[in-house]
């Protein structure tokens, strides 16, 4: 690949591996995030999302693997990467015993931002934190903490944002506002790598990657991820779905059953076997069944249980 | 009724088990539980001696005869004095005392024996470093007995006529620096180092572990800061705090305890500055080694113990066995005690202070290197 082609990528890492003691946390993860792209990073807790993000921004040294972040080598040029990346940690990591303004001021000095005072004022204004500027950061609610953290990460005008579960524990409205902000940042050409557990957030990403047990299982656009799994899905509507779920579980063609309120999603890769099973079951139980488009959530549950089986099958 | 049992042994036992499990996981705490009593037992049991013996003594001899040799031998035999060498003149004797190389200088004046034989009742002079009265008191109390035994042994035969009152010769003891033997002078000036050690090490010990424990370290590391910036930046406020403490102690020493200030107060502040730097490097090293704030505090206490016991603050340094003195010689507090007592009570200047200054400087630079090297730039 030429240097010019690689510069199209904000993140371009290959074969990242990381151990902690005898625990294999990240195995052969390769990621490519284009400039100006919102890249969603999904996977269960403890799957290696945070570790991967930390390796990308130089907070952890990979055991193996290499790559670039904003064109800088992740192994040798972590100082340059830190200067151009905004990293928002999973846990609120600003100083709770400093006020919002003091926190922003500290960050601004750290990055040696020219016209520091104006930049801090602008950040406070832009995020609507002006009236709360002299409040201690520790006293803020989850949503406000997250807004403050984003404001602090954006102060030095990074070209890449790494957001580690930024909306965990934040109410739906604050989450929506947050994502509007992310999308307007991306529209201005800032690349974003964001890890999340929420499907409504996943569908707002341009590209997705799913990681489980340290392995990258799939990556691509939402449509590519869905078609890639070649799942067909049926929805069954009615009461007492839990019993039905038990019955269906071992039927031919059924690989996965998930209840969403009064709807049961049944998925499988063998479309024909699944159709026969569903039609006979629905008929005998007197339930309405219809074939639906497979959703991201169905795919992710499938990916997770699939890799679970693959891993657990040996034992 | 049984459901409202105010004391359930099952619940109680579950708490006991949980505490044991957590304690077992915390290796350092466990090591402290075992280590502190062992260290204390060794130091108190073997290291500390409130009746110090074999104290370093130098001799200025302008006269050598059977009688003076016998006197010096008797001093050694008393086991309180250890003759470490001879010095050419009084100036050299004063310098050795000022630098703390010896605790006693025995001065045998010229013509001592001749005057003794003529029945002129001459005197020997013992100059003692009395900054720490407990170190010298027992040894000086033994001197009269030694004089008597020398008279019994040596003033015999035809010389026996010289016996009786007054004694054929006497020993004049000259307690230098603290002629009234006021223990407080010594303790108060030593307290400065002890207080600075405790506060500086404990406060900076928490400086980095606090960031790590609160999760703010990840943020700090993600920003473009270098280890030396973080560490030295964190230490600056504590230098100010240390100097404020030093001022409070000096004011109290001067106006509450009436400790005489023979030396230059500016020199005391410079010494304090160096000593604060030494302790801050200890604290920041602990801070980057410890996993959490509790461990940092435990390391601080573990460091404080030998400092208070083996530095010559609480017990006479020269009275300790060699191995304990060797440990004491690794601690900056040992040098600071000598330095400050030297400046305040002996009026020491630069030349006499230097032997205590350079070890502290080496200590500080060495530990700063360790601290920077052990600072983790990544979260690995």
**Global mean pLDDT of chain A:** 87
Beta-strand content estimate of chain A: 25-35%
Helix-strand makeup class of chain B: alpha/beta
Low-confidence stretches of chain A: 1-5, 308-315
Report how far the terminal alpha carbons of chain A are from each other. Answer: 41 Å
| Rg over alpha carbons of chain A | 22 Å
How would you describe what is shown here?
The complex is a heterodimer of chains A (315) and B (380). With 315 residues, chain A is of the alpha/beta class. Chain A is 38% helix and 27% strand. A six-stranded mixed sheet of chain A has the order 6-7-8-3-9-10, sandwiched between helices. In chain A, a hairpin with a 2-residue loop joins strand 12 and strand 13. The longest helix of chain A has 17 residues, at 296-312. Chain A is globular, with a radius of gyration of 22 Å. In chain A, 42% of the residues are buried. Chain B has two domains: 55-176, abc type-2 transporter like domain (abc type-2 transporter like fold), CATH 3.40.1710.10; 183-379, no CATH class. The radius of gyration of chain B is 27 Å and the shape is elongated. In chain B, helix 3 links the parallel strand 1 (55-61) and strand 2 (81-86). Chain B has 380 residues and is α/β, with parallel strands linked by helices. The model of chain B has no long low-confidence stretch (mean pLDDT 84). Chain B has helices at 9-25, 27-47, 66-77, 90-98, 112-117, 133-154, 183-214, 216-222, 227-255, 265-289, 293-310, 322-328, 332-346, 350-374; strands spanning 55-61, 81-86, 104-108, 123-129, 170-176. A five-stranded mixed sheet of chain B has the order 2-1-3-4-5, with helices on both faces. Chains A and B meet through helix 3 of A and helix 8 of B.
């Amino acid at each position: 690949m030429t240097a010019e082609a690689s510069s199209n990528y904000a993140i371009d890492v290959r074969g990242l591996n990381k151990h902690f003691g005898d625990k294999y946390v990240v195995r052969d993860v390769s990621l490519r995030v284009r400039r100006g792209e919102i890249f969603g990073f999904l996977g269960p807790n403890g799957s290696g999302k945070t570790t991967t993000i930390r390796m990308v921004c130089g907070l952890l040294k990979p055991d193996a693997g290499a790559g670039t972040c904003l064109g800088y080598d992740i192994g040798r040029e972590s100082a340059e990467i830190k200067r151009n990346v905004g990293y928002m940690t999973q846990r609120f990591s600003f100083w709770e015993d400093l006020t919002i303004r003091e926190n922003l001021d500290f960050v601004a000095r750290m990055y040696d931002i020219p016209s520091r005072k104006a930049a801090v004022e602008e950040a406070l204004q832009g995020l609507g934190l002006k009236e709360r500027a002299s409040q201690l950061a520790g006293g803020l609610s989850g949503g406000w903490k997250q807004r403050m953290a984003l404001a602090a990460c954006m102060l030095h005008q990074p070209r890449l944002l790494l957001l580690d579960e930024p909306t965990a524990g934040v109410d739906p409205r604050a989450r929506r506002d947050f994502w509007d902000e992310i999308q307007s940042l991306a529209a201005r050409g800032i690349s974003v790598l964001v890890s999340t557990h929420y499907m409504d957030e996943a569908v707002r990403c341009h590209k997705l990657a799913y990681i489980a047990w340290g392995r990258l299982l799939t990556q691509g656009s939402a449509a590519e991820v869905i078609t890639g799994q070649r799942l067909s899905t049926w929805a069954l509507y009615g009461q007492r779905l839990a019993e039905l779920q038990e019955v269906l579980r071992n039927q031919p063609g059924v690989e996965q059953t998930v209840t969403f309120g009064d709807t049961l999603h049944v998925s499988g890769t063998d479309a024909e076997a699944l159709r026969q099973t569903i039609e006979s079951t629905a008929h005998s139980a007197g339930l309405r069944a219809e074939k639906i488009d497979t959703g991201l959530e169905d795919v992710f549950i499938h990916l997770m249980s699939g890799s679970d089986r693959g891993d657990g099958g040996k034992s | 009724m049984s459901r409202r049992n105010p004391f359930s042994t099952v619940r109680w036992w579950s708490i006991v088990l949980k505490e044991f499990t957590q304690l077992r996981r915390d290796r350092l705490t466990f090591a402290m539980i075992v280590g502190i009593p062992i260290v204390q037992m060794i130091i108190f049991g073997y290291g500390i001696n409130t009746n110090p013996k074999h104290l370093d003594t130098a001799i200025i001899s302008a006269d050598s005869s059977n009688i003076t040799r016998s006197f010096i031998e008797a001093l050694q035999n008393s086991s309180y004095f250890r003759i470490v060498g001879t010095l050419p003149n009084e100036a050299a004797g004063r310098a050795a005392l000022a630098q703390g190389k010896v605790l006693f200088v025995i001065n045998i004046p010229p013509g001592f024996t001749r005057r003794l034989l003529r029945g002129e009742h001459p005197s020997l002079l013992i100059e003692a470093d009395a900054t720490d009265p407990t170190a010298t008191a027992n040894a000086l109390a033994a001197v009269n007995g030694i004089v008597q035994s020398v008279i019994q042994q040596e003033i015999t035969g035809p010389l026996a006529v010289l016996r009786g009152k007054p004694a054929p010769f006497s020993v004049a003891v000259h307690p230098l620096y603290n002629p009234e033997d006021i223990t407080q002078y010594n303790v108060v000036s030593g307290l400065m180092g002890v207080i600075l050690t405790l506060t500086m090490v404990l406060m900076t010990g928490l400086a980095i572990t606090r960031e790590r424990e609160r999760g703010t370290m990840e943020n700090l590391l993600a920003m473009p800061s270098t280890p030396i910036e973080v560490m030295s930046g964190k230490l600056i406020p504590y230098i100010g705090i240390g100097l404020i403490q030093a001022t409070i102690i000096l004011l109290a020493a001067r106006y509450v305890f009436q400790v005489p200030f023979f030396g230059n107060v500016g020199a005391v502040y410079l010494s304090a500055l160096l000593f604060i730097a030494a302790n801050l490097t200890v604290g920041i090293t602990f801070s980057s080694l410890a996993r959490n704030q509790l461990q940092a505090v435990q390391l601080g206490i573990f460091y404080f113990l030998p400092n208070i016991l083996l530095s010559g603050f609480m017990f006479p340094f020269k009275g300790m066995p060699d191995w304990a003195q060797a440990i004491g010689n690794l601690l900056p507090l040992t040098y600071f005690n000598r330095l400050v007592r030297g400046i305040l009570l002996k009026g020491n200047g630069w030349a006499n202070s230097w032997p205590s200054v350079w070890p502290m400087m080496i200590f500080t630079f060495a530990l700063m290197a360790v601290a920077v090297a052990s600072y983790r730039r990544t979260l690995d």
